[in-house]
Structure formats: C-alpha cells, structure tokens
Design a protein that fits this description.
The chain is mainly β. The protein contains 5 helices and 34 strands. A hairpin with a 4-residue loop joins β25 and β26. α1 runs antiparallel to α2.
Length: 570
Amino acid sequence: MTTTKPITSMRIGGGATATPPPVKSHSVITLQRSITESASITAGMKVIVEMLILAALIWTPSCEKVVYIKEGDTVTLRLDGLEANNEYLYWSHRSLQEGWLAWQHPLRGWSFTKDKRWAGRLSVSQDALSINGVKEHDFGTVVFSRLSNLHAKITPVKSFTVSKITVSVDAKYTVLVSHEVVMLSCHVDTPPNHRKPDLYWLNPVGERITLSGGQLRVAVTGRDNGRWRCVVVKDDGEDTASLFITVLDLLPAPEFPLYTSEQSSLSVPCPFAFNVSWEQFQSRNVKKVSWCYIPKLYWHHFIINPQMILVFSPKNAEQGWRSNTSRGKGFVADLQKGGLILSKKQWGVEDRGHYRCKFKFGNSISLSRNVSVEVLRVVSSAGLVLHSGQSVNLTCSLGKALPRDHWVKWFPPERSAARSLLSFGRLDPAQIVLAEVGPDDGGRWRCELWRNNTRLTSAEITLAVSRQLSVWMLVSIGGTAAIIASLLLLICITWRHRRRNTRRHRHRVCRSNQYVPTFTSRGRDTAPLPGAHQSEGYTECFPQRKTMFKQTSLSYCPRQSVSVAAPSPK
C-alpha cells in the first residue's frame, strides 16, 4: 500500500513556508501509523502490530542503541558515521501516533511535530536530534529513517531506546555537615533482551567507587561536596547521571605554620571547604563561632581547655564578637564569604602557639581547625645602645631550634664590615657574634627566614653605637669640668660675701630714757641718740653727712653710730 501524506510546514531562512514532499513508505513505522488510524482494527490486532514492530526493531541489533538518561536532563541521539547526502531524515517516536517527531533536509530545512508534549524541547543538527528536559513520556524507542528520493521507500536506519536512570540521596538534611552518613542510590531500567549494565560512582574529585547492590554508603567530608556522577557501563560506551551534595566543612590545616615577625601584622584564615557560603552554614543552625589559643608548651596538656580569644553568637549578631579574657586584646575576627579570619596588627613572642577556629551546631556537631603561628624575633645580648668596642651577639630566632629545611639570611647596615663577610655564603648562621662593634655597625639589622627557596618572613632590630673616647678627650673633658666647677665656686663665695655686707647696714631701733637738751649747729633742740655717746656738744649718727635728729622719745639710728664732741663755745 502506498501512502501520500504531507508532514508539517517549516520555514527556510525566515522566508516562505516550505512543505516536505510526499513520501512512499512500506516500512514498519508506516504500517504502524496506518493501522493506528484505521478504526476497524481491534485492540487485539493493535497488540499484534506492536509486537511486530518490536520484532522489526530488534531485527537488526547492530543498528540499535540504548541510551540511559535521567529525567530532566538533555538527551542527544547522534547518527555516528551517517551523512544526509541530500536526503530527507525522519525521526519518529513510538508514543507519537500521527506524523513525525522531526524531519530535516540539507536544502529544505527542518520541522518538528505540533504535539504540545514536545513543544519547544526539540532541536536538530546535521547528524543528531536533541530532546531537552526529558520527561516521562520521552522514554521509549526513537527510530531514525531516511528517504533518498521521491520514488524510493522510507528506510529505517537506526533506532534508539531511551531508558531511565534514577539517582537519589537519602539524608536527613539537604545540607550536610562533615562526617555525617548518607546513602546514594543508582538504578537503571534495562530494556528487554539487553544485558544489565555495570554501575559505579565518581565523586567530585574524580575517584571511582564501585557500587554494591546499587547503593553507596558514605561518611561525607569536605572533599565530597559537589557533583556525584553515576556511570552506566554499556557495550558501546558509558552514560552518566549526576546529583549534587552540599557538605559543610573547613579546609584542612596547612602543612606548615604561618610565619610573622615581632611588631608585624598577620591574618590567620579559617576557610570554608569548596566555596561553601556562610548562609549555608546558618541553614544548619550554628550556635556559636569561636577562636581560642593554645600555647605551644602546653599543646598536649591543655588541648581540651584552651584559652578563649573571641566568641560570636549568630542569634545575638548585634553584639558582635566578644572577648572575656585579656588574651583577646588586639585581635579582630571577621566572617567573610569564604571563611573566618583572625587578625592582629602587632604580634609578639607571647602570641606564639596554636589557634583554633570552631563552629558549633545545634545537634552537638562541631567543626574545628588548628593553625600554628610562629613569630620571628632578633635579639641583642647587650641591648640596643652599645659603645664602640663592645662585644654583642645577635640572634634570629623562633624561640626554638630551626628545622632542617629552614635557614636565615642576614642584612647588616650598608657600612658595616659584617656585610661583606656574610655575603659570601648562602646559608648564614642564626646567631652572629660581633667581637668589637664600631660606629659603622650602628643602624638597622634585618634577618630573613627561608624554607628551601621560599621566603617566609623577616625581622629587624636597630642598634645605636657611640664612639669610644680617647685619653686626651677624657683629659680635656676633665679639665673643662674642673674650670667650670671653679667658676661656680668663685661665684658662690662672692655672692655670700656681698650678702653679709648688705646685712651690716641695716637700721636698728634705739630708745632713750632721758632728755638732755643740746644745742645744734642749726639752733634746734634734738633728743639724744639712743646708744650713742652724749657729750656737752651734740650727738650725731652720721658725722659724714652731719645728720641731726629732733628730740623724740623713739628714734632710729644706724647700728654703729659715731659720737663726736661738740665744739666748745668761744
């Protein structure tokens, strides 16, 4: 029976609508379409026809391919090694009772079925058909056929059996914490008359894990965060189905300590594993976040009860980070997108030790990470102020012996003689001895710490060296000091003498108990001078000035008065 039927219309390059030519077909697929459209065929005949179609499909097993795909993924049915060669290519699906699923021609373009179940989900290329977002009705058999010319028959070339693969994860939470146990399952719907394929899992880091009974029990860690793939091993290749697992974890502690120097800044990181966000941590009910300190000497003794530095509670986020001890002075913590940071501007030798960040969840689960911090320091045995000719030892130390793969490099001041001596060897000693320091040794001494070819940190110290005094300089300084002392002594003696003379010229109070009238040269009566010698003439306190006093009962006169005799009357 010859059937002529248009398929669907399509557009070529945005121009006029083209219609595929009528085709003549005696294939099994055409027989199925004709029988389905006939209302006179009974249900029993339809079953027989379906069996005949299935037999026809498995008649050429070399042209049949099984494709395993997960619901929701995109499946691509590729015609490997087949070319169009100006032929019409047709794809049909057994669940499509009328028309073709898709067809294409190298010159006339392509077209898709108008069935709403595939609307917007089909795409074709030169040698492949793709179905996006596979749904339940997409599973089944898809047959590819070709038509070489209008007078030829539609010839089935290849069939694809799209089978379902199911992957799932059995866990209490969608976001897991490290060391929690989950169950991964992978199952496939194997078509009849086909061998059941082998299955295995690939974890996010690419490690292969063999399945036992289709299930895998895993105690997850941070390295399990990401995409897990169930791989189906077939005779002609492999198919995969993926699922994603989110695991909260912290990256492992670094192999080596973090290095800084005295009075320098350092940030201690506590990063989340594989770009996990703080919001995902909060989804698991984080109760407390903390930083604590463990001294090196007591690492094995007080590991259970470390010294608390900073504490943060997400429920009381407005309070920020709190510190209840003096150990937290100077430290600053910050929760960033990629992890937790502890920083300090000026580190000291007392900060050497181990630092632990800890996240405590509501179900008594916690995550923690320990980081070791080393502080480099340069120490002078004689202090920072030295005298020329003095001996001193300079030590570049971490407070303990340096590991074998660590070494130091010294950088003395530019004019120091030690600079040329230390530049000959690559490895400098951790301690250098300066037998006699000179003025050129004063300045900044820098020590760098290296591990193999990696520079770790550096520390500095500044020395002040005074010049050595000679004998003549000492004599000169002593003579100058003696002269200055003599001048001071002379000034002091002179000052005391002048003060004593000034005290002698002070006035004193004189009293007179009797009145002796006298005649003065000016014809005035005066009282006798108390304490002065009285004569028939007159009393005079200052004979040089000829000062005369009036008669009073209380008068003042100098401490030493001079009595002169009055001239006798002529």
